[in-house]
């Protein structure tokens, strides 16, 4: 996948000057040996062990020359909290802290590292400098434990780095009928995201400009035909879709400006169909599959949410309506609900924007609702171009980052699964099983006024997203509560 940061993570050893620096160096070497065994090629060790502020500046100079964009401050012993946090402050990128666990009885005699003291002092100094640093649930680790944390932090850092270098292209006014898409954009700028809003006429004009690049259009159309195979009933449509894909990719390449990465949030109906004479869903699904989410209905926060999920999982994501309930008669007898109850099941749906690799039986079709509204239910022409099928069964994370009407960032994260159940309907859709969803829906999604769109990743990514949100300064993070624990305002007599 393109359009994502490559995390280069440095393990920076620190040593309090009353401890031997060799203790830190030995423990860093053990971590790097385990990292090599685990094939963490993105993890490098800093040749400077920080004992004082001059060392911190030397380590910082090395990190900049080496293109390091994330760091792990490794307390091989107690560590000097002042120089350590000074490095983190001036480094500026995502940072975490780990401390060395005592290996055995023998080290206690003279080589004890006093890790718990060190992390406490580090945390206190992080507060003094008003820094946000990732501290794992169990920050005192042996070498193998350190590697597990480094791997997890790579995912967290990728999300943070992506957001800090992201531009959102919006095409068209956010639709009146979906006021939930009209969230204030100030919080996006506060995160470091750049927003470029354009008219759909800009996209329409750019689409027509691409017509002269026939060789490129033909190549894209040929690739589409190869990808779709027998599941393409409209081969005559492919050149138009290819021209549209070329227009979006050309805009992506030439309009990112100072930003390294970009996503789209585009107007997609109803005037789109009567102007472009197709629906953009299949093209949107192709770009999203490469790491460039294209959110429907000019949903800026939806596009950012999809992007965060893709950075966390390194897999395609999708944007779905939290759509409809699941009738009992479509559920196979004896089906296991992945820890959920029947009332927790619902269908995630969109017209046809989900990447083919995430669908069980993908095929190009037409948008049924648009066909009825724009073509009177007749032979589909301008409503063609969706990518439809059942979402594959497997692990899933539903996620949303949103601004409320007061320009405050709110979010939710819930892990669950898509079930292997035929949804018996149209679009890109699947039956989602999120344990505790019924209460979560009522007391988080409704109560906190989240919109109907959710981003979905096809893996469990809750840990990475939760910690990335904290590093980005998002405090209102909502997750499902277990049975017996009430949500704020939940009626205890109704549970």
Summarize the model shown:
The chain has about 500 residues and is α/β, with parallel strands linked by helices. The protein has helices spanning about 20-35, 55-65, 80-90, 105-110, 115-130, 145-165, 185-190, 200-210, 215-230, 240-255, 270-275, 280-290, 300-315, 370-375, 435-445, 460-470, and strands at about 10-15, 45, 70-75, 95-100, 140, 165-170, 195-200, 260-265, 295, 315-325, 345-350, 365, 385-390, 395-405, 410-420, 430-435, 455, 475-480.
Name some characteristics of this structure:
495 residues, alpha/beta, Rossmann fold, 2 domains, 6-stranded antiparallel barrel, 5-stranded parallel β-sheet, 16 helices
Number of domains: 2
Kindly report the spatial arrangement of strands forming the biggest sheet. Answer: 10-11-16-15-14-17
Number of helices, counting only DSSP H or I runs of 4 residues or more: 16
- Strand-residue proportion: 15-25%
User: What's the N-to-C terminus distance?
Assistant: 44 Å
Shape descriptor reads globular
Q: Helical content, roughly? A: 25-40%
Spans of at least 5 consecutive residues whose pLDDT stays below 50 are none
Q: Which secondary-structure class do the elements indicate?
A: alpha/beta
Major sheet attributes: 6 strands, antiparallel, barrel
**Strands, count:** 18
Radius of gyration: 25 Å
Mean pLDDT: 96
């Amino acid at each position: 996948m393109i359009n994502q940061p490559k995390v280069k993570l440095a393990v920076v050893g620190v040593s309090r000057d009353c401890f031997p620096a060799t203790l830190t160096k030995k423990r860093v070497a053990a971590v790097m040996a385990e990292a090599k065994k685990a094939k963490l090629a993105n993890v490098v060790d800093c040749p400077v062990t920080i004992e004082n502020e001059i060392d911190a500046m030397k380590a910082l100079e090395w990190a900049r020359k080496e293109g390091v964009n994330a760091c792990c401050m490794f307390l091989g012993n107690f560590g000097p909290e002042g120089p350590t946090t000074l490095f983190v402050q001036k480094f500026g990128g995502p940072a975490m802290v780990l401390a060395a666990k005592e290996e055995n009885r023998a080290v206690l005699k003279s080589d004890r590292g006093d890790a718990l003291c060190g992390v406490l002092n580090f945390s206190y100094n992080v507060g003094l400098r008003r820094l946000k640093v990732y501290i794992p649930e169990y920050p005192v680790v042996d070498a193998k434990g350190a590697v597990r944390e480094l791997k997890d932090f790579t995912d967290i850092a990728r999300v943070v780095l992506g957001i800090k270098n992201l531009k959102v292209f919006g095409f068209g006014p956010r639709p009146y009928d979906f006021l939930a898409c009209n969230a204030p954009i100030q919080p996006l700028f506060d995160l470091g995201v750049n927003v470029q809003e354009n008219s759909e006429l800009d996209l329409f004009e750019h689409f027509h400009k691409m017509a002269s690049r026939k060789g490129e259009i033909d190549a894209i159309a040929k690739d589409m035909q190869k990808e779709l195979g027998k599941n393409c009933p409209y081969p005559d449509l492919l050149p138009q879709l290819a021209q549209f894909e070329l227009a979006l990719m050309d805009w992506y390449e030439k309009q990112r400006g100072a930003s390294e990465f970009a996503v789209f949030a585009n107007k997609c109906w109803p005037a789109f169909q009567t102007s472009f004479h197709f629906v953009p869903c299949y093209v949107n699904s192709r770009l999203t599959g490469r790491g460039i989410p294209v959110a429907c209905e000019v949903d800026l926060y939806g596009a950012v949410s999809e992007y965060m999920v893709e950075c966390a999982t390194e897999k395609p994501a999708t944007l779905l309506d939290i759509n409809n309930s699941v009738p009992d008669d479509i559920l196979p007898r004896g089906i296991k609900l992945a820890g959920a109850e029947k009332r927790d099941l619902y269908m995630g749906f969109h017209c046809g924007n989900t990447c083919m690799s995430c669908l069980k039986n993908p095929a190009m079709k037409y948008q049924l609702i648009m066909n009825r509204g724009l073509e009177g239910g007749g032979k589909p022409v301008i409503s063609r171009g969706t990518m439809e099928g059942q979402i594959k069964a497997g692990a899933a994370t539903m996620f949303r980052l949103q601004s409320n009407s007061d320009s405050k960032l709110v979010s939710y994260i819930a892990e669950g699964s898509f079930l292997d159940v035929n949804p018996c309907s149209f679009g890109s859709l699947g039956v989602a099983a999120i344990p505790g969803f019924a209460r979560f829906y009522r007391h988080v999604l409704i109560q906190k006024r989240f919109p109907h769109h959710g981003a979905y990743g096809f893996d469990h990514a809750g840990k990475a997203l939760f910690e990335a949100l904290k590093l980005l300064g998002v405090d209102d993070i909502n997750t499902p509560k277990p049975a017996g624990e009430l949500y704020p305002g939940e009626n205890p007599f109704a549970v």
